[in-house]
Q: What sequence folds into this?
């Protein structure tokens, strides 16, 4: 069994962003040299997500508006978590979008559907944060 | 390590549906012949879900009503994604219900709890779409 | 390939609770003796979750309030699932928080970010329920 680990680092200037990380995961897979197996891609921070959806700017705007409606940032004092922090909404948004994806590896490639792209979802930016890519297989 | 891959195809006539795919995943596992390992079951399309919950018609109705409240289909022009399409709501609903499940394989069987059933959730039907079943183990 | 399976049992007195199960998953990993691989931790019941987030009481209160707003328990007759039961809201809440997490194993340890903790989320307590820990690797 081959095992491979890589971290992807991000430093989003604003509070929120969606970043397509499919190329980086693809490159990690080529480095790992696994032909058949699974890749786990997860946010290592609890105010960020890794999810799979469409690389379309209109949809990302829709996600932003929708998540802000489901779990508004303001007023920050509506959340008990926000004693010393103001990121409670980010912990909520991340649950809707998810922490991780598991993707099949087939014939040495990410076994994705036609429009599937892997995204890092940042909900509390302004500092360095990481994503873990863990590959196991043969 | 054994690796096995199978696609399940669907063509839901209406816009939305929940389909129990546990028997198909079970049969894929018997074909793969894996005794210990993991099975990944994921929608290959970004307006559909694979999730685990109860096979109970009342609950499925509740999911339908609830998702429509959280991410309404109409009016379609409330979403920027809906320039040429009308399925932005389906991309949102799919995030709530999830893209994938990972199920343990123990003694050659899906290691599910007493009421756990695997579902395909369609949120933008009327065309052919796929689910990936990927099994790894021994 | 090493394969290891363990069940964690819970009996939450009230209806809802969040319980940090990181120590139990950590101990299962030590028992399994896997150095490189994946651990799947999933609720075996469909009104409960396993998720990763912060071990902070204020945030858990925020989750409780937020989930009750997204999928209220009362009035119970708003849900068709609630013919003989009153737990439809628990099936909905669990979808928001998720069924499972997959965590990387690196150098014999759970490869978690600095604040990542694994939680059991109970949404319909008052009886014995289980979480499955399945470890595969080498």
A:
């Amino acid at each position: 069994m081959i095992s491979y680990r890589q971290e992807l680092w991000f430093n989003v200037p604003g509070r929120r962003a969606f970043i397509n990380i499919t190329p980086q995961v693809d490159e990690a897979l080529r480095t790992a040299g696994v032909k058949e197996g699974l890749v786990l891609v997860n946010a290592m921070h609890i105010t960020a997500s890794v999810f799979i959806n469409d690389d379309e700017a209109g949809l990302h705007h829709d996600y932003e508006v929708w998540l802000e409606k489901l779990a508004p940032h303001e007023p920050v004092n509506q959340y008990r978590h926000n004693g010393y922090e103001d990121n409670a909404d980010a912990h909520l948004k991340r649950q809707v979008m998810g922490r991780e994806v598991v993707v099949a590896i087939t014939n040495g490639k990410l076994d994705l559907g036609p429009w599937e792209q892997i995204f890092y979802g940042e909900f509390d930016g302004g500092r360095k944060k990481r994503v873990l890519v863990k590959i196991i297989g043969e």
The longest helix of chain C spans residues 57-70.
